[in-house]
Amino acid sequence: WNEQRRESAVSYGNLLKEIPHMKFPIEPEWSRSVYHLYVVHFNNRDKLQQHLQENGVSTGLHYPLPLHLQKAYRHLGFKKGDFPVSEKLAEELLSLPMFPGLSTEQQSIVANTIKMFW
Question: What are the CA-CA distances from residue 89 to residues 39, 104, 117 (Å)?
């Protein structure tokens, strides 16, 4: 399954590469991702997510609250503003559909729906 998911990730990258202000997963030469998620970085994430949902494309938010602000870590004493990069990313990361068996046609639908957002 991993090679199929990697092919799906490459396909997403090719389909979405022209989207301005969107950043994509990076796979360094020295490693291999398992691509159980395909997470993009987009400044207007919430509006894009709403647009996708309205057009039948489900997405996910993984860690919408940075770890240092979660209840389980409250005892460490961190507050909003202590990790500004993490906080910004928590507001801008969006997981696109990614699962074994995801077809190129389904990815094209996701990509075209994102392009309609512009």
Answer: 11, 28, 21
What per-residue string of b and e applies to 43-78 under the rule 16 or more CB within 10 Å gives b?
eebeebbeebeeeebebeeeeeebebbeeeeeeeeb
Q: Give CA separation, 88 vs 10, 13, 46, 91, in Å.
A: 26, 23, 13, 5
Distance CA 65, CA 96 (A): 18
How are beta strands 93-96 and 22-23 bridged, if at all?
Answer: unpaired
**98 DSSP 8-state letter:** -
For tokens 């240092």, the residue is: 68
Cα 62 to chain centroid distance, Å, stands at 8
* Tally of CA atoms within 13 A in the half-sphere of 1 that contains its CB: 8
**What string of pLDDT tens digits covers the 118 residues of the chain?**
678 888 889 999 999 999 988 999 988 999 988 889 999 999 999 999 999 999 999 999 998 999 999 999 999 999 999 999 999 999 999 999 998 889 999 999 999 999 999 7
